[in-house]
Known about the structure:
Belongs to the DoxX family. The protein has 130 residues and is mainly α.
Amino acid sequence: MKNKVTVLMRVVLGILFLAHGISKLQMGLGNVAGWFGSIGLPEFLAYVVAAIELIGGVLLILGLFTRYVSVVLIIVLVGAVFTAKLSAGLLGNGQAAGYELDIAYIVIALYLAVAGTTDWSLDRMIFNKG
């Protein structure tokens, strides 16, 4: 059962990150870059984050490089909390989202980084490891 839940967590987290990356594309990366700049971040990071979300999401869905992708996503999430969401508080302030969902994503990604993956993954099929 643990194996099936781990697969579910990995695939769902991958879908969610893929959706976030697609959302950035739909908004227009130039607009996202402008928003990054407005909160004091280098605008090029919008492109980096979008790529990480898109590629990382697909890799998680496939179960390829799960541990490494999970660590990179944790870094992105911690960055989002400290640069964009911390001031809004845990649950948000009515004008901006809080960081409660980011914490949930971080914990799931941390589990995947530590536990590895399952039999139903490209990691296991290609490298025979979890």
